[in-house]
Amino acid sequence: MRLAAVISILSVLLAIGSATEWWESGNYYQIYPRSFRDSDGDGIGDLNGVTEKLQYLKDIGFTATWLSPIFKSPMVDFGYDIADFYQIHPEYGTMEDFERMIARAKEVGIRIILDFVPNHSSDQNEWFLKSVDSDPVYKDFYVWHDGKINEETGEREPPSNWNSEFRYSAWEWNEVRQQYYLHQFAVAQPDLNYRNPAVVAEMKNVIKFWLAKGVSGFRIDAIPYLFEVDLDRYNQYPDEPLSNDTACPDSNDHCYTQHIYTQDQPETVDMIYQWRELVDEFHTVHGGDKRILMTEAYTSFENIIKCYGDGTRNGSHIPFNFDFLSNINNASKATAYVEHIEKWMNAMPQGVYANWVLGNHDNKRVASRFGVQRIDLINILLQTLPGHAVTYNGEELGMTDVFISWEDTVDPQACNSDPDVYYDRSRDPERTPYQWDASPMAGFTSGDVTWLPVSDDYKTNNALQQLRAPQSHLQIFKTLVRVRQEPSFRFGELKIQALDDDVIVYSRQKQGSDIYVIVLNLGESEKNIDLTKYFSLGATAEIITSSLQSQYINGDVVQTSSFVAKGNVGTVLVGIS
């Protein structure tokens, strides 16, 4: 068939000529501890379970793993409501278990990164309880306000129309203190007051505490919410303008207003820079490997890029590329993929790395969003682009979402809705137990019950089965991780283009090293492509790896002038000199 004209071409050199630090061009794995591996049979994953499986992660080839929150918590939001930032949650183990995990990670050569949740605490945190009692040290640790009196009814009302992410007012009345407190998430997650220098200092102490315990860095949660607009001269907070979004008619929903006063305030980025200075200073004083920061910010593209730094001060080492995650889906055309890749690569400051992420504990699984038939194609994409790759646990197996009924739903974001719309809001489906093997409960636990149900397909889709199979999603993933260590992937140029609505082709090559060509066919129909029209290839190339349903096997030699790309298949080839 005749291919369409080139839609978009990007040719960029990596910002950094050679990676020398452990974290550069890294391969990062997110563990949701509650669902990863249960070592004591209570149906809840724990630190000893993580420790047990660190060699598995190293064998795949991951650089580091970041753990969703493991700190003491009432578990209203499953660890994102922290009662004590300096203690391990008892269901997950003890400080000794944590130290054992750190020691084992050092033995196998994999770094541990912790989830740092700075925006809020639990309402069971000692700081909040003392703030409620107006303790002079903690009185202003949180955002408090008297509210306002309705002139018509004489009733006291919240200070503003701000809504929480989990629906309803972001203000909650406290009878003891006789004031409202701000919570941008659950009622049980009061927002810390970053306009109080004591809060800033205390959260820096938290970072230093865990750095001293041996962690290699932090993934920082919910960055856009750190600051709210300051009080006006009348000591009031302004209402946010309505979004006037016809798809969001419920005044209780977060989307009902534009969050111009509760998100992305100017002081937010400066806080990231302060935390970067802190971890850099710790490295200078204590030596050892560099410690890194990852940042989570569902915000504008421009704000994400600012997280890298401002040209004078450095910020996040890895500001998660949520532009890619938020804008690419199963209906996206090849041109959209290329445009968003080009957008990020061209916007990065000098001397930093790109990163690519399409899955995490807050989004439906990649295999469910893009289709199981595309899981290998997506993993090929993420593992062969320049910079960092980030993988959520289970995506390497092609795990899919598990249906959780309204009655069994535990995610507060869903529980605050109703049986008609809860599933779209729920994050439970992507948080179900990891599928280790075909034994009862997928080898996740020796117990009879799990905190969320195990997927029905665990007997045919699990890590052990895929490790034993000659070809599987996991075997393909392991091949990708190995090949990305080649010089052309670590330091090489990226040349990428969309050939039509379905096909993306790109090459990775470092001068003097092999040329690798990646072909991704997002469509359903087979395409015949003359790769020599786009890349300096010889007559033949070797298949490094290809999607599970591909007609190719690793090591096959193909004609580059008539390469056949099946629908929903990704392929990595290397030129033959």
Short description:
With 577 residues, the protein is α/β, with parallel strands linked by helices. It has helices spanning 47-52, 54-60, 95-108, 126-132, 197-212, 267-286, 301-306, 322-327, 334-347, 366-370, 375-384, 412-415, 422-425, 463-468, 473-483, 487-491, and strands spanning 9-12, 27-31, 64-67, 71-72, 84-88, 111-116, 144-145, 148-149, 156-157, 171-174, 179-182, 217-220, 292-295, 318-319, 355-357, 388-392, 493-498, 503-509, 515-521, 527-529, 540-546, 557-559, 563-565, 569-575. The chain is globular, with a radius of gyration of 25 Å.
What does it look like?
With 577 residues, the protein is an alpha/beta fold. It has helices at residues 47-52, 54-60, 95-108, 126-132, 197-212, 267-286, 301-306, 322-327, 334-347, 366-370, 375-384, 412-415, 422-425, 463-468, 473-483, 487-491, and strands at 9-12, 27-31, 64-67, 71-72, 84-88, 111-116, 144-145, 148-149, 156-157, 171-174, 179-182, 217-220, 292-295, 318-319, 355-357, 388-392, 493-498, 503-509, 515-521, 527-529, 540-546, 557-559, 563-565, 569-575. An 8-stranded parallel beta sheet has the order 14-13-12-6-3-2-16-15.
